[in-house]
Structure formats: C-alpha cells, structure tokens
Amino acid sequence: MKPNNSFITSQGPLHNNKTNMKIALATTLVGVVSAATSTTTTHNNPFAPKITPNNSESKQLGRLLSSATPLRQLEGQVDVSSYSLRFEKCSTVKQYNANNNNQVITAKRFVIFRLCPNHSCGSCDQNFGEYLIDMETYLETMLPYKYEEQTEYCSACDECYTQSTQANNNDAVAAQDGCANFDLNSCYQECLNIENMESNGYVDAADYIDCVKVYENNNKGLTYWAGATCHANGSRIKIGLFTNEECTVEDTNVDTELYMKNENGYNVRLSYHLLKHTFVNGYNNCITSCADNADGNDNSQTAEVCETLYQSSAKCESSHAFSYRTSDNSQMWTEEMKACDFIEQLNYGTYDESGEIVVTGGRLIIERATTTGAQKFFVTFFVWGTIFMSAYVALLYHKIMKGQKSLLSAHIKDGAALA
After folding, report:
1. pLDDT digit string (tens) for 181-196?
2. pLDDT for res 247
3. 340: how many CB neighbours lie within 10 A of its CB?
4. Among 262, 289, 321, 417, which one has the highest count of C-beta atoms within 10 angstroms of its own C-beta?
5. DSSP tag of 52
6. What's the pLDDT at 287?
7. Which helix (H) or strand (E) holds 403?
8. DSSP assignments along 177-224, one per residue
9. Helical axes 135-167 vs 170-177, angle rounded to 10°
10. Are residues 302 and 79 in contact, defined by beta-carbon separation less than 8 angstroms?
C-alpha cells in the first residue's frame, strides 16, 4: 500500500509550517523513584519499572515543554547563523495517557539536538545549546529541507556529468564549471538509484513517518501501521510496525519489510537515502549549517530550518554557556533547569529503546535543585552544630574516663591501707 507523500509535490518540498511543539511528557525524581519500586515485570527485564506516573510535577514539566519559546530574538527571528545543528539521539518515553480510555499507556518520541558554535560539530562540548523536540516536528521540519538539498545536489551532479560526457575531459569541465566538488561517477550512480528506486523494488522510508497503514488481514485480525521510531539506542531513526493507528504501540518482533508492499501487492524494501540525512554522522559531523547565504550577501541570515526547530524546542542553554542565553528571568531559568533535567535523563539512558524506565547499576538521575539563602544557613548551622556536639561528646567522654580512673585509684589505695 503506497502512502501519500506528506511533504513532497511535483514542484518540490512544501514549506513547513512553524508548528508549536507538541510535547506533553515529563519525568521527575518522584516519577523515577515511584516507578523504580514497582513490582510490575517486563519481558526483557523483570525488575524494570514500567511507566512514568501521571502526577502534578509531570504535568508541570509537560506544560513547560509544550509552551517552549525562544530565549533571544532579533527583529522577530532567532539569530543562530553562526551555529550548526548536530543530531544527538532520539528517545522513546512511555507515559500515562489521560486522553484515550482505550489506551492507558502511550509512547512519546523525542529528538535531542545541539547547536554547535563556529560550525564545528566534532568538538561541540563548550558554548553550545542543547534542545528537546518531539520527533514528529523534527522530521516534518528537517525532511523537506533535506529533500530540497538532495534535489539541488542531483541536479548539479547531472549537469556536471552531462558536460563531462560531452567534453570527455573531467578536469577541464571541473575547472571551468565548478564541478570539482563532485565525484561524478559516484554522485551520478547515487542519483540514478534514487530516480529508479521504485522500479528497483524500493520505497522511500521518508514516506512513512506519519503513521501509514501498510497491512490488513481481516481473517487473521491483523493490521499494521508503519511509522518512525527510535533505533540502535537512539542513534538512528527507522520505520517500525505498530498495532495501532496512532503508532504508539510498536511490534518489535516482526520484520517491517515483510509487510511493506507496493500497489501491485509485491513486497518492497525501504530506502533510507533521504531519512538517514536527518541523523547520520550526527556526532562527528553537522546535520546542517544554520547560516543562510541564499540572498548572496556577506551577512548570513539564520536558515529557516534552524529557526523553526529552535523556536519549537525546549531549551537547555545556561549550563552549557550558550552565547545567546541572556535572559535573567528567574521563572524562565527555573523552567529551563527542568528541561535540562529531562534531557539529562534521556541522555543517560533512563529509558530503554521501547520507552520503559530502566535503572542501570542502581543509578538514578536526580533532578537539579536550587537552594535558598535560608536553606544554606540551616545546612551550615546543622553542619557546625554537629561538629561542636561531636567535640563536646568527646570531651565529656574524656572527663568521665579520667574520673573513673581516679576513683579506681582511690579504691586501690584504700584497700592497701586496710590490709
């Protein structure tokens, strides 16, 4: 069954709407501890807790993430043109679903990305920003951009290849027409494979990110939907099979491609030629530069793809010394710390690939907390009080022992006198 392509038309990619972030999940220390003490078992880990509870703190952080706003804007637009975007990981988290009586537990998928300074993603460990966004928004924003990029790449490759064939002199063409950046034989074959993808028995994996029904057998009572999911410990995004039309309940025990068929009913394979560019080489290389020089001016503008992702994400910037984190708003800072805590939990593997909470080696992620002046005073008071009390107890003990020795000595002398 062939899906409708939601972001590609005959004219190229559609412009992505700047949708608000649709994140409705959070986790806190209370949630982790409560789940950690659960006696519910799982197939992979009988001691692993099951879900994050639906409590007031979870709802509070959920509202924080869903209403995330940019921390700095220039004339209505975010200026991050000197940064590049690096994919960190995607993560699945299960939570209580209060909106659907037929499905108590639902899965939410998130993407963590960084904005790296000076377009250097290989050493992105200082002065960077770290961000959390739901995977749906991430892919809906990134894929049209990558499709346009791929189209321009293949168009330029085809032009260079054609000129090279006509001139029968690659060096001359490269020097004359700026084709030196192309490995002509390689790029031509790559683009030819993309063009002939369907005739070669492949379908574009990017066509299935929006949860598409791919298999239905009424006699067996079996229906599958295909949709985007996290894979390989969050380092990849792949297409998985789900048993519900919201694509929240994944069946990981089946081979996805066994149920992928074309319009004629023949099995087809998934091509990740486009989807992979949203996550591959995310650690060592940039997914995209946030500088847009399309107008030909020396002053770069922020690329629309980066601006949209930035505005739609929850932000963790202060703790990483991100250059544009200038707000002194205490409420905003408190909310940002909560977002940082949640990102930290995802980075440290608090959830497994299926979205279940796991405790590895007994390590729990503790929520970052701030202390008031009064709290600091009482902590200092009790610390010094404990030290003085310990010294006083030691002094009393010394006096008692000295007194007992004197009394014993006196008794010995009296006994000797009586003798």
Report:
1. 888 889 999 999 999 9
2. 92
3. 21
4. 289
5. B
6. 93
7. helix 373-418
8. HT-TT--HHHHHHHHHHHHTTGGGTEEEGGGGTT-EEEEEETTTTEEE
9. 120
10. yes
